[in-house]
Amino acid sequence: VTAIADPVPDMAADDRPVADTPDTAVADRPIPGEPAGARLLAGSPIAAGIRDQVAGDVEAFRRRHGRRPALAVLRLGTSPAFELYARQIVRTCTRVGIEPRESRLDGRRSVARVRQRLRELSLDPDVSGVIIQQPFPRGLSLGDVVDALDSDKDVDGITPISAGRLAMGLDAFSPATAQAAVEILDRAGRDLEGLDAVVVGRSNVVGRPVAQLLLRRHCTVTICHSRTRDLASHTRRADVLVVAAGSPGLVTGSMLKPGATVVDIGINVVDGRIVGDVDADSACAVAGAITPVPGGVGPVTNAILVRHVMIAARRLAERETRARRS
Ligand code: NDP
């Protein structure tokens, strides 16, 4: 059992501790029966530490402002995958004292109506943050509506402003899953500066922002995708490998550098079981540390989201105070 390293102090909103007490939860434990050195980077202790910090901050906010931070969950139709995710988010909000608010657009969902609802939520002083159902229902696309959301309430980092600021190294909310992956790496006990990091996947919600966040940690970053020639030649060079491809078992032990730290973001259902993008059995024999699926990045993602809501609430309250004074 080793104490975790403090997160790297850097520019992103996430990188600044929300509470004063550093999170010293221990995240690593040996994998029974696996060679020494292969450690399981479990997400639950990290998530619990973040939630505790946020709960304390929410209570302090409530005492100071007489209200709780609130997260609006915008549903655009029925999506079983999103329903599951939304239930988890609502549960996490409730655990830390954040008010979850359902915002539903039933019936005809035109681009204009979604944009209008996002503008209303952006202007609502009682809403601190907004998340929008994804994937979008047919006929709607994120790109058509997303700029109607105030980037100060963009707690899942989906707006072009958030993505652009992240790419420029400016203060921004990054997508919660990407932040969760890097949060686990921050606590894995390895100085990331100068390491070769390889990210498999380049989606706007996961791969790309992970790469940006690793650049901020001063890694040398390679991004791989479906057109990459000879994926293994890249992954074998990786001191740090983050996989977010949505392809079960894509990365096997023979594709890893011995001792590598591996973060498996993939969530796939195979024969009724949830598995990642990394073949856990072969990878555990080669990697130095690896996240489990399930139980790795997933739990941390929700904790990061509520942390973002808390940060957004505090910023909006400061903005209101400044507006009252001027
Ligand atoms: P997308 O489908 O949007 O993106 C997948 C990316 O992986 C693409 O960039 C694609 O390349 C690349 N890719 C696909 N197959 C290969 C391959 N064989 N070799 C190399 N690259 C490949 O998925 P997401 O980014 O949204 O999600 C990725 C995974 O993460 C999924 O399993 C998803 O379920 C999981 N996820 C987990 C979350 C969590 O909280 N743990 C949250 C969000 C997602 P190209 O761009 O060329 O098509």
Overview of the molecule:
- The protein has helices spanning 44-65, 80-96, 111-123, 142-145, 160-167, 176-186, 207-216, 231-235, 280-284, 297-325, and strands at 28-30, 39-41, 70-75, 99-104, 129-132, 196-200, 220-224, 240-243, 261-264, 268-270, 273-275, 289-290.
- The chain has 326 residues and is of the alpha/beta class.
- The strands form three sheets. Strands 1-2-12-9-8-6-7 form a seven-stranded mixed beta sheet. A three-stranded parallel beta sheet has the order 4-3-5, sandwiched between helices.
- A hairpin with a 2-residue loop joins strand 10 (268-270) and strand 11 (273-275).
- The model is unreliable at 1-12 and 16-28 (pLDDT under 50).
- NADPH dihydro-nicotinamide-adenine-dinucleotide phosphate binds next to helix 10.
- NADPH dihydro-nicotinamide-adenine-dinucleotide phosphate is lined by residues 177, 200-203, 205-207, 224-228, 231, 244-247, 250, 265-268, 297-298, 301.
Write a concise synopsis of the structure shown.
By secondary structure, this protein is α/β, with parallel strands linked by helices. It has helices at 44-65, 80-96, 111-123, 142-145, 160-167, 176-186, 207-216, 231-235, 280-284, 297-325; strands at 28-30, 39-41, 70-75, 99-104, 129-132, 196-200, 220-224, 240-243, 261-264, 268-270, 273-275, 289-290.
Task: Map the helices and strands.
Layout: E1 28-30, E2 39-41, H1 44-65, E3 70-75, H2 80-96, E4 99-104, H3 111-123, E5 129-132, H4 142-145, H5 160-167, H6 176-186, E6 196-200, H7 207-216, E7 220-224, H8 231-235, E8 240-243, E9 261-264, E10 268-270, E11 273-275, H9 280-284, E12 289-290, H10 297-325
The structure holds NADPH dihydro-nicotinamide-adenine-dinucleotide phosphate.
NADPH dihydro-nicotinamide-adenine-dinucleotide phosphate binds next to α10.
